[in-house]
Predict the structure.
Amino acid sequence: MTNFIDYFLGGVSTGAIIALMALALVLVWRSTRVVNFAQLGQAMITTFIALTVRDATGSWLLALVAAMASGLIVGVIVYFLVIRPVKRLDTSGAIIATFGVLIALQALAGMIWGGDQKAFPPPISNSGYEVFGRTWPFSPYDLLVVVLLLVLVLTMTVVFTRTSVGLAMRASAFNPEVARLSGVRVNRMLILGWAIAGLVGAIAGVLVAPLSTLSPTSFDIFLVFAFTAAVIGGLDSLVGAVAFGIGTGLVISLVSGYTDSGNAPVVALVLLVLNLLFKPEGVFSHHKARAV
Amino acid sequence: MLRVEGLSVSYGAVQALNDVSLEVPPGRVTAVIGANGAGKSTLMRSLAGLVKPQGGRVLFEDEDITGRKPEDVARMGIALVPEGRSTIPDLTVEENLKLGGMWRSHTQRGTSLTRVYSLFPVLSERRSLGADTLSGGERQQLAIGRALMCGPQVLLLDEPSLGLAPLIVTQILELVSQMAKDSGMAVLLVEQNAATALRVARTGIVLNLGQIVKSGPAQDIANDEELRHAYLGY
């Protein structure tokens, strides 16, 4: 039983980070109907930028701010430079193009920062709390991650449901034609979607780096988990991304704990296949069916 | 208020509109009638900026607005209620309304919202419910309400009778016609259901295979038996 509790607690912060990455994928999907496989490549770049800022200034907070700012900018650059021109020709082409962006970003990072694994120290202790005379696999840093996820989700919920911009973004996602006829500048909402996704992904990158190491390819595995969570959640549901992001984190922690960490991606893939077989539209989707 | 001069639209080899000219004066309803495929929706969509015409001009208060983007056309004061599903079921009734005219000032939008709720009391009762819970007639009221939230000088109604009971259609159209009279708004109504449309309209225009075959006082067109047989099928 203690094993179970340990594995469960160990998965919470990973789940929170996967939730953020899945949120970024969902934000892009909602705005442009493209799955952005480059999302975590963008996050990798902004995390390297954050590490550079952290090494120069010694401030984790400044590093986070730098990541968020560059996340916004990189999101917009990728949209303008690649997605918009390609999407004009072909939507599935745009999805393939995001793979190209991912590979290009990894090569770029390798050229600038090298291919070695780099350490990204956490801002606060990452050793587990000691309660009832034993150490639990939940640290102050894990708590910070969960709190940041909650703050971000709450902020986004308020923005999306209580503000005009949020309403315009939702309307543009659900029905761009009616939104345009209502006077909404839908193109700007798409750009905003990519920008916010870039920001959310950047936060996820800075948060996940201290839990492992940072290299041009170290986020690749998270793409599998985030993609699984986003698709099972329905791809267009923010609630689904968060719920299944945390769920995926817990599942992979339990699987890694009881069997072997190498099995985690396989289990994620199995979940994805089961989902596509039995509920292809996703659990929280707004749409009745989705072509697979 | 709105003038169309020699408008031509084609989709590939298919000519949907051929040299169409018409005028939409303020304070009254102008009806464009014609069978399925006559080019009625194409006309509406090109006026709203959703379709780019190959030839001709659209003038709004003597300003050439041909080829402008739909969001800019809406902001100028021309609001289209498109055919069919023009409400967003994932949003609440009030969110659907608030979507209209987002660029306008807070006060203007407040006034418009109050007005829409007094015109369509059922929307006020259901304001916090999802738009997917509304009946067909209520949804059409919501779609018109959203367009009115833009504070339009020109209201374009594309086939509002589609799938609705005749009584509800008459009620909605009479309300729109009254609104045009009261506020000086110009209304262009496109309908397959000619009899109902001609009852509320002042002027009627008959469209067939992308060309205007007849225009004149609505009463005359409604009484022209030959025309009815040839183009309107009743």
